[in-house]
Design goal:
single chain, about 230 residues, mainly alpha, three-stranded mixed sheet, transmembrane, peptidase activity, hydrolase, transmembrane helix
């Protein structure tokens, strides 16, 4: 059982690398396709936020590629420079997605609220879990290993909660872009490609984390039986 879970975990890890490669490739492909609206990612973000009563949420550029995110503490949509300044299908898709998170925040979307509340605990748990797991293995201390599993479980739960948050933000983004005329019918395919590729990275990461959790639990059970 442990061996099978190990193989599945490696396969899931490979999937995460492939998903990251795919999202970058998809973004770069659709970054070459100009949006018919002619609006940049920053302009689309500003319009979406304003139309949803989020005038106080700023839109700022940040260095890097695919570094886009919504900061709920400072209430800022931060867009990577290729998204902020460009008017491609990829740029406006990513910008709309991040605005989807800002709208979730305004509406107190359940999964987002839960994720925010989990973050301080998960941040601590994910930093200490590897040490507990490794310490339990090398010191042959099952109680320490079991405690590591508990902490690791919190990190896995956080990734699972993240899935509906990301899918909902993408769904909101696409609906808004169609409704408000930021894209035409022929551009919907490109928007879906960009948003789906990004979503796949979260699915792959969650799957890998979940399989790792199962593997650790199986290791604990086998060790207890051996004793």
């Amino acid at each position: 059982m442990v061996t099978l879970l190990w193989i599945l975990s490696l396969a899931a890890l490979g999937l995460t690398f492939w998903a990251q490669f795919r999202v970058k490739g998809t973004f770069r492909k659709w970054a070459q396709e100009p949006a018919s609206s002619g609006l940049t990612g920053a302009e689309v973000a500003r319009r979406i936020l304003d139309s949803n009563g989020l005038h106080d949420v700023a839109v700022e550029p940040v260095p890097g590629e695919l570094t886009d995110h919504y900061d709920p503490i400072h209430r800022v949509v931060r867009l990577s420079e290729p998204v902020y300044y460009d008017s491609s299908i990829a740029a406006i898709s990513v910008a709309a997605h991040e605005c989807g998170h800002a709208i979730q925040h305004k509406e107190a979307y359940g999964a987002l609220v839960l994720r925010h509340r989990m973050f301080p605990v998960v941040n601590f748990a994910s930093s200490i879990a590897p040490f507990l797991l490794m310490g339990g293995i090398f010191l042959h201390m099952l109680n320490l290993f079991a405690l590591g599993i508990v902490f690791f479980s919190a990190a896995v739960a956080f990734q699972l909660v993240t899935l509906p948050v990301e899918f909902n933000a993408s769904s909101r983004a696409k609906q808004i872009m169609i409704r408000d005329g930021y894209i035409r019918n022929l551009e919907e395919r490109g928007v879906s490609k960009v948003l789906n590729a990004a979503a796949l990275t979260y699915v792959a990461s969650a799957l890998y984390a979940l399989l790792e959790l199962f593997r650790f639990v199986a290791m604990l059970v086998v060790s207890q039986n051996d004793d």
